[in-house]
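Record type: monomer structure entry
Structure origin: computed from sequence
Chain ID: A
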Amino acid sequence: MTSEAPASARQVASYEPQQRSGVEYAEEFQHDGDSEHERAPWYSWLAYTWVSPMLTRGAERMKSRTALTFSDLYKMPKFEDPAEDTRQLREAWEAEVEANPQNPSIERALRKVFAGRVMIGGAFRFISDGAAFAAPFLLRQFLRWIAEEDKEEWVGYVYAAAIGLCNMLMSVTLAAASHHTLSGFAQMQHALTVMVFDAALKYPANHGKSGNLIAAHASDTAKLLELAMFIHGLWVSPILVVGALIAIWFFIGWAGLIGVGLMVLTTPLQGIIMRQVYSLRGEQVKKMDRRVNFINEALQGIRICKFMNWEGSFNSRVQDARLDEVDVLRRMYTYRIMFAVIMNSLPQIITFALFTIAFGFDDGAITPDNVFPALAMINVIRIPMMFIPMSIGKLFETKISLGRIQAVLLNADRKEFVKHADNASDDAAVRLQDVTVLGDAEKVKKEAKEGGPPPNSFASDGASEVSDVPARPRILEDVSLSIPKGKLTIVIGPTASGKSTLVSAIVGEADVTEGSRVVHNGPMAFVPQDAWIQNATVRENITFGQTFDEEWYIDTVIASQLMDDLKQLSASDFTAIGERGINLSGGQKQRVALARAVYSKRDIVVMDDPLSAVDPHVCRALFEGCINGDVMKGRTRVLVTHQVQFLPQADFIVVMDKCRVAFTGTYEEYQKSDVVGVVEEATGAEGEEDTHEGATGEAAAAAALSVERKLPEPSKDAIESTEEAAIGDVQWDTYSWYTRLGRYSMFTLTVIFSLLWTASNVTFNLMLAWWSADAEVGGRQLSNNEYIMWFGIMCAICLLMVFCRQYAYSRFALNVARNVHGSLMENMMKAPM
């Protein structure tokens, strides 16, 4: 057989050539009527009280020890309809490509559709930061009112209420800003995710870009949500910082700029540290990919591992890879410790430097109504100052990711040459007209770059995409073929004669030239040569999302020779199939894929050599009871096979030889043709062997008719071992297990140093309050020099405690990372089959 079989991702689409787009799947999750969010009044939107019923429901489920399900979730509001979002973005993108064909921008399309929602979040963010900026001024007036000797009490209540309302406004508007911004970027993410998925279905089967598509679909779209937390900081933070600088100068004079200067000086250092963290993160991902590959190798060959007693060797190999990964994590944690020390100790350092210098030049500046507003203002801008470089970094990362997504959308150039018809009067189920299939462009470029010989083909495509690369080979050329409706068509020929390439053209997965046309007169199901299996139960793999019909399902299972297999499986057809059908044999996987096509009731079923992976007697039973049996009666069947003994039962025969259609016609016409010798020479021995097994196969086919029409029941052990979701609080045993793996000593040190850091931080602030109020400490009045000395000591203690805390926690986290992975891997390798 040729190697142009469709890739797994496209096999799903080929199963239903009349493909449902991601938008159509998204529509299934919509509900009739307004959502709880839409029915809520405006004040409930701001206070988020509309979420309370769901929280109450969750609490009630906790008491009854039952879990929340999908039906318990709120309906999606219409303004967050994923199908509508995707439609609007697709229209905007198509308009952008039409308006700027040479330089289209997915960013402009995103702004056109989603900018409004994000701008609402920006308005709320501006109000929130404005309230945060106003709070220190209100605090200053309140402290001055306290210091007044002759004061009116109601004024104090007004200031206190104003401070409280200011903080409440800041909290409410910040939550609204986060909600609208995150929702807007989430809408961007899911719309782009659907568009990338739809674009992936438009790539040729041999595109060779699976890694790019997966990265664009999973990681690149996720960058949008990461940017959501930083996007408004790009324009709000500079405004806030400038305003805060003026305010600090207003509070305590030019000495206040010392604190801001320290923040400015540490900002590049923080940027350098974060760049190192991102660099190590990339290295860690490579180490992780290597470890995951080792784990996949072990899982895919787990039977051989256990038969050969290689569990220990594979486990050691994985653990060594994990240790390399943990070593990178250790270096990453070193930089994170530095970052945490700067972040947590910077307020104390700034405060110490600011007020020590302020005292040295202006003793009158050290008063409560100057000190605390200045400290409050410094805290207001501390986070924005830190996030400015991170925001810029996230913006550039997202622009790079959007560039990759844009490349995926622009390169989805598979020719749509398949047309769907529903013509009852047409006697052909599939028509191929002037179909010319091209070879792999990437392979041609690679061979040209390596200086290899041009591809072996009988013709070439003159319209090469790259002028300095040899023309792409034509694997099939000018094929015109009609597959009769409701009949059994067998495609046969020597190995590498083009049979799979012909099938790829039939299902619309080949890369063809302009003018090639394929017409499907009815819906189609496809059984690939390499069976595609979902990570789901046997039943879910067969029904494939369709409504369960027990009688038809039993007919399908019997015809597909799966009943005996279900009896051997502990959970019958509820047995979960691992990734890529790891716990099924090759024959079982092929029969499950065949059963899926049978159950679909599609008018046309295309099967690419499904009989090659099964035993001879099962092969005969499958042909007699399934492919040519009652379950497929009246359906158009296209069977690619090497089994020449089935040719007499074919209604139509297609012979492939040297990548061309050498013969089409009935079996009688085939016997009189010149291609008989070619076929018998290539498959004669195989056919004789299978013919010898014919009696056994006929007996098996007859036995299939007498099989009991009842699905095997799952065994008691399988029912008892069924995994269930844990419900309720996390048990203390889990915390104890986690702490033990991280080592009790590191956990204890983390708690102790956290308490000491909190105590030293509180003492630091108390000393500032005593100093500004000129209060007695320990029954005596401290001098200014003594305050400065103890201020410096407490600042150093705070710095030391935060370092010790982060170091102990890092050691604890690394121990957990190493030991949990080792324990899980060892238990997995020792688990029974």
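Annotation 1: Residues 1-31, 453-469, 685-697 have pLDDT under 50 and may be disordered.
Annotation 2: The chain has 28 helices and ten strands.
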